[in-house]
């Protein structure tokens, strides 16, 4: 029988500590999804998790720390889905299509999680009023997408274009679907994905002689 003190290799936390943190994050996601970020107090999250507020304080420095971990968790989930599609693509064009379709599939299949992210991006603010978390993902997300576009140009599949502006345009189109779904729960994300991928194929492909 294993001791409860066995730790994970990546974080140094015991398995019980990691499980407790996951439990709190899940409760926080549910709370923000139902009540909104502003009303999702640590006390309410603790109540829903069936623990004391002090247990949350043991694992997280405060609501800001917990909120950052919510975003990291949801980004990790989406990233795993997207990575599966991109990694098996046989060409740059298929990788870009897979990237867009996987992003939008995550939006369509996880509306509550998307609602949580949008709410946090809008309301999680620094003391000066600026967003605490960049809603456009200007660093990691754009860099990853930019690398896909650059590879397509390097292998001769994509035409010459400015990579960062193109990446911003694509990310903005993907993020717009999240906002639209929040306004209209009946919004057809799959039809949107079909039109967006068709447009991007025309926008990126290299002209034939």
Short key terms for the protein model shown above:
209 residues, mainly alpha, Arc Repressor Mutant, subunit A, Tetracycline Repressor, domain 2, 2 domains
Task: Provide an overview of this structure.
The protein has 209 residues and is mainly α. The protein folds into two domains: 11-60, Homeodomain-like (Arc Repressor Mutant, subunit A, Orthogonal Bundle), CATH 1.10.10; 71-204, Tetracycline Repressor, domain 2, CATH 1.10.357. It has nine helices and no strands. Helix 1 crosses helix 6 and helix 8 runs antiparallel to helix 9 (189-204).
Gross CATH architecture of the largest domain? Orthogonal Bundle
* Element pattern in H and E: HHHHHHHHH
**Low-confidence stretches at least 5 residues in length (pLDDT < 50)?**
1-10
CATH class of the largest domain: Mainly Alpha
Distance between the termini: 68 Å
Q: Which shape, going by the Cα principal axes?
A: elongated
